[in-house]
Predict the structure of mitogen-activated protein kinase.
Amino acid sequence: MKSGFMKIELNKTLWEVPERYQNLAPVGSGAYGQVCSAYDSLRNFKVAIKKLARPFQSAIHAKRTYRELRLLKHMNHENVIGLLDVFTPSTTLDDFQDVYLVTHLMGADLNNIIKTQRLSNDHVQFLVYQILRGLKDYLNHRWGADAELDFCEVPIILANTNYCDVPIKLADFSDV
């Protein structure tokens, strides 16, 4: 493990992160990784850290990891989650197994907001507008201006609980 890193266990998974990330707490997990929240002491705000699950176990996993990193690094749109940091605790290529992605922490996903809040027509229009803006930029970046998005390839949509004041963001491009 690199100097300046610390180890912490969350949900029976060992996390090795730079000491600047404090107060780690589990947020969720999926097929391709786990996510925790943390306080970034250098930026002075909370972030989301995604630990990719077995990012290099096969060619398919490696391509998925590369694709997600490339998209997050190059996408610059207020409705697409941005990449703040990428790190590994490994010190040698032989030990290189884990990759961590750091993004802004969003308060909820769109599914949670729909289930827990009554939305007016204006709210729905505003949310759809933001989703379409993010998808348009994503499609243009991924496949060019004439691309079509397959239904199974839709990224996760994140929002803050005050979604009317803060833009929603497309996230989790590991599957697309």
